[in-house]
Amino acid sequence: MIEIKDLRKKFDETEVLKGISTTFETGKVNLIIGQSGSGKTVFLKSLLNVYEPTSGGILFDGRDITQMKREEKQILRAEIGTVFQGSALFDSMTVEENIMFPLDMFTNLTFREKKRRVFDVMGRVHLDKAGRKFPAEISGGMQKRVAIARAIVNNPKYLFCDEPNSGLDPYTANVIDDLLVDITKEYKTTTIINTHDMNSVMTIGEKIVYLRLGIKEWEGNKDNVITARNKNLIDFVYSSELFKELREYFLTNDKTSIENIVTNPKTDEN
Ligand SMILES: Nc1ncnc2c1ncn2[C@@H]1O[C@H](COP(=O)(O)OP(=O)(O)OP(=O)(O)O)[C@@H](O)[C@H]1O
């Protein structure tokens, strides 16, 4: 579980995060949404201590990163898997070498044990045959799966993803979403995902935090999004006609989860 207490971040005189408090539970997929510039990336980087918060607390299962010494932060860092925008793979390393990197960084495992772990996670993300390839030789969706394999190879307690679906077609984006959900359940990670993808919001958001101008404007889950009355949230989430129609459908027809509507759209036949 990660608890955020009145988190503030200023750059010079500009306050970008203006006192955010929330809780992200273990084994759940938590989404951060919000307009461009609302502070999602600064929020995620503050949790990771890439940016030092100006004030507030960030408790990883009770351990406040803002109060930690350098060595304690390093121990915590090894418990966090990250998937950054654009996958951030090393171009000159093979898929296998990319995935092994955190084990080289954070563990004293033997080469044989590292190799075994790398093969295990490659199987988990269905990349068994790509180990010897370089990032430039595989598709964008495969690159994301390499980034996810690298993030989970050291059995993280916490998984942070910044726009894991960006640049992917809708089908591949769903595959990545499903993978992140499965991994969250299997590894019991506290997963936090920054996303612009409204399909993800409707299908995998067990908790959704909507940031606006650096404050937490709304929080809830994927079903609450449909019935929410917050005007700013509605304008943001339902900026497309399709989602407006889905919301109308949900509110006027039945109380089926929006997930069913998105994944099994009703037709005249059914
Ligand atoms: N290192 C920095 N120094 C100063 N200001 C920054 C820095 N990083 C971000 N900001 C400012 O903080 C605000 C929030 O930026 P942030 O990147 O968190 O937005 P975002 O919600 O992630 O946007 P997007 O969806 O476009 O990625 C912006 O006004 C940005 O200019």
TrEMBL record:
ABC transporter domain sequence ranges: 2-238
Chain segments annotated as transmembrane: none
Source taxonomy: Bacteria, Pseudomonadati, Bacteroidota, Flavobacteriia, Flavobacteriales
Alphabetical UniProt keywords: ATP-binding, Nucleotide-binding, Transport
Gene3D superfamilies assigned to the protein according to its UniProt record, in alphabetical order: P-loop containing nucleotide triphosphate hydrolases
One Pfam entry name: ABC_tran
Source organism of the structure: Marnyiella aurantia
Name used for this protein in its record: ATP-binding cassette domain-containing protein
GO MF annotation terms: ATP binding; ATP hydrolysis activity
